Amino acid sequence: MATIAVENYLKHTLLLAQRSPDGLVPMGELATALQVVPGTATTMVKALADSGLVLHEPRRGLRLTVEGRRVALNVLRKHRLVETFLVNVLKMDWAQVHAEAEQLEHAISDAVLDRLDALLGHPATDPHGDPIPSVEGTLSSAVYATLASCATKASLRVVRVTDQTADFLTFAEAHGLRPGAVAQVLDRNLPAGLVTLRRLRSKPFALSLAAAGKIWVAPVEAG
Amino acid sequence: MATIAVENYLKHTLLLAQRSPDGLVPMGELATALQVVPGTATTMVKALADSGLVLHEPRRGLRLTVEGRRVALNVLRKHRLVETFLVNVLKMDWAQVHAEAEQLEHAISDAVLDRLDALLGHPATDPHGDPIPSVEGTLSSAVYATLASCATKASLRVVRVTDQTADFLTFAEAHGLRPGAVAQVLDRNLPAGLVTLRRLRSKPFALSLAAAGKIWVAPVEAG
DNA sequence: GGATCTATTTTGATTTGTCAAAATCCATCC
DNA sequence: GGATGGATTTTGACAAATCAAAATAGATCC
Question: Does residue B25 contact residue B14 with C-beta atoms inside 8 Å?
């Protein structure tokens, strides 16, 4: 069975590969994500390649094999279902649950995972709006507009918050910016790098373009 | 923070110390419990002693320090609350949950532990009847009679099943021998090493003295 | 097309936890 | 009171994962 370190390398490779068109992940990005020095990543990736979990293209990067992707998706599924459990059942603060899930994702068995999934009603996304991989190994890759790129004035529904930092999530929570919330962009000042926002019946407030880009939104639908 | 290995050494030391009047645990017992060779236990115990978690009395054994006991109780509390959660909430088979909890006990934070404890209604024992250490670090050490030592004919309530082996728990479950069940010892044949038992309205059945000694019982009380 | 810069790899060392097997201690037994 | 035997400790080795720092490969820039 994969060690905790192996699971982490594979999970982060999957997450980084998602934002790269060809699925090739540079060594440096992986090392940064895992908070190890580059040499450590090289050593480990070579070992993963020997185990058939990744393909290593020296000096270019790595990509997951089918088996590596399978393992990575299973870990990600555990992570996101655990987060959902911690928020929906244990009522924990969504800013904390990422750190908790980083540990638990390596400790829960597939049997427990299945029970949790059933208890939670087979959710499609976690509390941050991140898609939960299915048992069969499919992962939604839907792309949405963000508060930095969407049309102004229209009513929009928040669908995903793509920054797991506790500080950012606490800020978002404080302004009601969690999946399901409805808001509209009042103004976007590019030179100043500011977006002005209003939630239903609340006071307008501003946030940076960088922060706004982390909030994914969709048009509000009937019902 | 304590590593997984350290937590396991301390937890098993606590469990073994409970069945020793002076709290001294022989090296060999610890090594057997942890499934390591004796030399490994010696090495590790010396390291634990350097960290102030145990006292090592060379060639005699080891005992927990106050700090070591504190850590061990916290791990044991996690283990038993997780087992309770897995059985009571996720409805898992009580024969499986010990193995699951062995992993999870090292991955759940104190914050999650507190929420779990509240969700479960602050239980005093786990599904096997093993006492759950309190947040304050107290652990019931109540001793009961067993089906191998109790009076015959009297109605008795099962309070604890002290063998976490999946096979044994499956056997016990099949005969309804879980905490709360009521049964009476019909006969005890010492030369044959057999105990004959009957649960309310069920057919009598026999089990070995060794097996009977693992089932703890108390007099049935009114209500 | 050579100098330079940056990302990556290599090298050597460290920590943690483990095993195999040899050495040692100590209680006990004649 | 020395031989025996079982538990414990010591010794030397190893695997996994990491870091620091030197070496190297590639891209880029005049």
Answer: no
Let me know: does B27 contact B38? Beta carbons within 8 Å. Answer: yes
**Average pLDDT over every residue of B1-28:** 96
Rg (CA), chain B: 19
Tell me the DSSP string of B154-173. Answer: SEEEEEEE----HHHHHHHH
In a domain, A69, yes or no: no
pLDDT at B167: 97
- pLDDT tens for residues B149-193? 999 999 999 999 999 999 999 999 999 999 999 999 999 999 999
Q: Measured between CA atoms, how close is B90 to chain A, in angstroms?
A: 6
Whether residues A17 and A49 fall in one domain? yes
CA separation for the pair B53, B10 (Å, rounded): 8
Cβ burial of A223 (10 Å; 0-12, 13-18, 19+) is exposed
pLDDT at residue B200, rounded to an integer: 85
pLDDT above 70: residue B223:
no
* Strand D reaches within 7 A of the B27 CB: yes
Euclidean distance between CA atoms A169 and A98, whole angstroms: 10
Distance between the alpha carbon (CA) of B22 and the C1' atom of D7, Å: 19
Of B96, B112, B119, the CB nearest to A100: B112
pLDDT for res A201? 84
- Domain limits for position A116: 75-141
User: Into how many domains does chain B fold?
Assistant: 3
Q: What is the pLDDT of residue A137?
A: 96
Q: Choose one of A93, A117, A141: the last residue of a domain.
A: A141
Contacts of A104 in chain B (CB under 8 A): 104, 107-108
Q: Are A112 and B100 a contacting pair at CB < 8 A?
A: yes
Q: What's A129's domain CATH number? A: 1.10.10.10
What pLDDT is recorded for position A222?
55
Structure tokens at A100: 């908790």
Give residue A200's pLDDT.
85
Distance from CA of B181 to the nearest CA of A (A): 27
| pLDDT for residue B211 | 96
Q: Chain A contacts of B103, Cβ < 8 Å?
A: 107-109
Question: Residue B201 has what pLDDT?
Answer: 84
Assess contact for B7 and B106: CB atoms under 8 A.
yes
pLDDT of residue B177: 96
Cβ of A59 near strand D (under 7 Å)? The reply is yes
Residue A9 included in any domain: yes
Q: What stretches in chain A show pLDDT beneath 50? A: none
